[in-house]
């Protein structure tokens, strides 16, 4: 689940929070999580 991924800290470097906005760099998050690149979009 999303909560487990968040708590694992694996993608912390890809997440930035400015006030109430949370910005996630998708490419970096996928890379840090160890997902394969490519596939359907």
From TrEMBL:
Listed name of the protein: Uncharacterized protein
InterPro entries the record matches: DUF3853
Biological classification of the source: unclassified sequences, metagenomes, organismal metagenomes
Pfam families to which the protein is assigned, alphabetical: DUF3853 (PF12964)
């Amino acid at each position: 689940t999303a909560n487990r991924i968040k708590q694992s800290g694996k993608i912390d470097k890809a997440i930035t929070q400015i006030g109430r906005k949370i910005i996630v760099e998708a490419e970096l998050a996928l890379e840090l999580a160890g997902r394969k690149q490519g596939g359907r979009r």
